Amino acid sequence: MNDDTKTKPQLIAEITQLRHELAHVNLTKEEQSIELLKSEERFTLAMRGASDGLWDWDLSTDKVYYSPRWKSMLGYEEHELDRSLNTWASMVHTKDKDFVLTRVQDYLSNKADAFEVEMRMRHKNGSYLYIRSRAFKVLDETENTPIRLIGTHVDITKRKKTELFSARNTKILAMIAKGHPASKIYDEIAYMYEERHPGMRCCMLILEGDTLLYGGAPSLPKAYCEAIHGATIGPNVGSCGSASYTGERVLTEDIDTDPKWASVKHLALPHGMRSCWSEPVKNAAGKVLGAFGMYYDYPGLPNEEELNDLVSAVRLVSIIMDREQNLKRIKELAYTDELTGLSSRAQLYLSLEKRIKSAKESNEHFTLIYLDLDNFKNINDSLGHDAGDTLLQMIATRLINITSHTHTIARLGGDEFCIILDTQEQAKAGIIKFAHACLEGISQPVFLSSRRFIPTCSLGIAKYPTDGEDLPSLLKAADTALYAAKDRGKNVYAFYQVEYTQQAEYSFKVEQALREAIETETLSLEYQAQTSVETGKILGVEALARWFHPQLGHVPPTEFIPIAERIGMIRPLTQWVLKTACQQAVDWRRSGVQDLRMAVNISPSHFLESDFDQVIIETIKSTGIDVSKLTLEVTESAVQTNKANLSMFKKLKALGVMIAIDDFGTGYSSFASLKHLSIDVLKIDKYFVDDMVNDEKSTRLIKAMIEMGQKLGYEIVLEGVENDAQFAMLKQFGVNIIQGFLFSKPASAKEIDALLPRKVAL
Ligand code: C2E
Ligand code: CA
Ligand code: CA
């Protein structure tokens, strides 16, 4: 690859060789003189370019003379290669061939004054050389038609590579300056060194904690890159893993035998890699940021040039890795609140935008809460800013403990915090529970400068999408709500919409009170008679739960039963009702009331408890009620042919209790779903009774239901019978039992007691 190293004696030898060639060819005189002429021209050319290869193309025959130097430049011996144009054509880079031939044509057709090109040609060893080719044409006697083209080859690979290398280098620096993505720059760096050292493959890894992450290695197999991504560094983890760990250069001559590679060589060898030289990448302070690795597919150690390049590559890479670390740090600073480690205002806005977008797409709700400490200024003023900061940190920790990790918590500055709360189901209840958890969690005592404080806060609550559909309006709503809370005297929460706050407070109060009432068994029961149409005697009673609260007054069961279900108190409630009602039944029996049935309402949710039958078993045991006199009233929704429900039905039935379908005709079930169950009683809902006297359709409907139910063997109870007209009609239809205000309103056990039929003692 040396351009100007041919000595005079070598030149003379070349010309002698030419003459020698001539002497061996059997030529006519005329041909001989032409050849001689040719050789002289070659000689002239040879004199011009001392180390040049010569070529001489006969345009009429396409035979080409390639000089020994031409051949040796490309790695061939004198006797190798054909004297044909094809020889050249097969060696020139496919991407350069057309353009070179065009330039030849241009020159021969006088379109261009001279011929000079740079092209890539393949060396015998497979690598490509950059060749500069110059030529002049030889014309025939008429001086019009070119008959030969004679030219030189100069190997300009070294210069060209340096040029390309520095062009790449410049490009990389420009990319760094313009802030291109690191991954793109890493790839460029790899290409730059790989171009300079054919066969080399480069790899850049980033150190994060004690783990190496993929930076760039465009020429290494994807599978290998994936395998090393996330590797933990250590003294014996390949070349890069060890270099990052020790901070020292690691040169592995043979991956197959180097002990450092023993545990990881199975990742590299299948891909052909055999040697790896790695240099740790460090920042100005000497901290290891990653590693740069050079791989070859054969064992070996770097030469001086390669070693220099390893060092210069690392210098370049360190600029980018350093930049990336700083960017990350800046981002962290911008998106986290330094004092508390919570999200910053910027991060909150980003998260909110994202949440709004996803909520819009999937039609979801969520809640934004502003939280502001009460009288924080006093702490700052009296104890100083350090104590204030400490308090803010404590508050942040408390908030983290209160909220589950799926919620975003941010500090907006000062003593203002913001929480994005995801509440899908039972939205209001969830929000209130959370608001109370905040008020309670924050107001635990703290010690600041050895003084005891009870911090309190106020909360403003805004709901997406009702209170604001975009970021500014939602933030404003939460802020307005916060001011409303402060106005109301601090240590409270307020919804953006005033009525929400009232409702929310009411239902929270109700929940708390109900929980307490169930726990302390301060509910009561009323009983409503179920009267036989035939005899006019009371056959049974239905137990109905009642709740009186000193402040809330009488809360109807239609209100508190769903609350008990929601707050998970329905099971103790049912247990209490069962126990009390059954005990009452037993008491009545003991007092001489015979065969009285006791009906108890059972929430559908119990059918999903796999052990609900135990509650009944215990009640029977503890009260001694006659099982056949106990009726469980279940609404239609529990009758749905859900497998779990069915098995509970069967278990209960097996105990010997009666089952009544409550509110029949109002739910979604039908006679069809009853066929899977063994039911004893059908209670047709009051809804049908209300209209029957005036509306013929209702009358027919109720008649049909009664007939059908009776045909299926059910006892028919009609609920909500309030007047004689209804009663008369129902009696005509053959209804068995009536439950309604006409005969008895729900009343206390004592009041009912007087109505009960007793066997008269003889
Ligand atoms: P329900 O099981 O359908 O109970 C019948 C309801 O209709 C009772 O209302 C009763 O007072 C009312 N009623 C009966 N006859 C008449 C009438 O002629 N006219 C009018 N206007 N109303 C009549 P109450 O006591 O308010 O109970 C409402 C619902 O609360 C019950 O409906 C039942 O679903 C539920 N409930 C009551 N106690 C319990 C309980 O202990 N456990 C469960 N799970 N639910 C209960
Ligand atoms: Ca009922
Ligand atoms: Ca009912």
Describe the structure.
This protein is α+β, with helices and mostly antiparallel strands and 762 residues long. It has an eight-stranded mixed beta barrel with strand order 19-20-22-23-24-25-26-27, surrounded by four helices. It has a six-stranded antiparallel β-sheet with strand order 8-7-6-11-10-9. Strands 2-1-5-4-3 form a five-stranded antiparallel β-sheet, with helices on both faces. A hairpin with a 6-residue loop joins strand 4 (128-139) and strand 5. Helix 6 (157-178) packs antiparallel against helix 7. The longest helix is centred in the middle third of the chain and has 32 residues, at 304-335. It is elongated. The N and C termini lie far apart (136 Å). The mean pLDDT is 89. The protein binds ligand C2E and calcium ion (2 copies).
Radius of gyration: 48 Å
Helix content: 40-55%
Output the structural class: alpha+beta
Number of helices: 26
Main-sheet strand order equals 19-20-22-23-24-25-26-27
Mean pLDDT across all amino acids: 89
Overview in brief:
With 762 residues, the chain is α+β, with helices and mostly antiparallel strands.
Describe the structure using short key phrases.
26 helices, binds ligand C2E, 22% strand, single chain, alpha+beta, binds calcium ion, 6-stranded antiparallel β-sheet, 762 residues
